[in-house]
Amino acid sequence: MTASKTITEDEDKALGSTSSSSCSFQFRLSHRDNVAWIEVRGDVEDEDKIAFRNLIFHSLDHAAVEKPDDIALDLSAVNFLSEEAVAVLIQALKAQKARGAQLRLVRPSPWVRKKLERTALLSLFLVEDS
């Protein structure tokens, strides 16, 4: 379950997807207004933690080279986010803050919002609902 393709600076490219027999998620990376956007769709299960971590940190590494101001993570189409995936988000948030940038959660789905609220983690992130 790996997802690695070359990211080009000027193109809005779909990077790929990862799946297993029981769950799957898809993702897309683009750049807009000096912000790296990651759109995630589907369920991010415990089995997907390595692929999800690779996606997020590959994007962070790419962002460090390209110097966008922030990373925007669109979670509007995420139906399930495991505890392992939440831990990846916290690690990514810390990494972004260390480089003086934000990890913004854009339109988190009701399920994601409720999970992050229940665990008192939502307030750690800059959340955009538009």
Give a structural overview:
- The protein is of the alpha/beta class.
- It is built from three helices and six strands, in the order βββαβαβαβ.
- It has a six-stranded mixed beta sheet with strand order 1-2-3-4-5-6.
- The longest helix has 18 residues, at 49-66.
- It starts with 12 loop residues before the first strand and ends with a strand.
- The relative contact order is 0.15.
- Mean pLDDT is 80; it is low at 1-23.
How large is the radius of gyration? Answer: 14 Å
Structural class: alpha/beta
Lateral arrangement of strands in the main beta sheet: 1-2-3-4-5-6
Terminal CA distance: 32 Å
Count of beta strands: 6
What order do the helices and strands follow?
EEEHEHEHE
Number of helices: 3
Apparent shape:
globular
Query: What can be said about the biggest beta sheet?
Result: 6 strands, mixed
Binned strand content:
35-45%
The average pLDDT score comes to: 80
Measured as a percent range, the helix fraction is 25-40%
What ranges have pLDDT less than 50 throughout 5 or more consecutive residues? 1-23
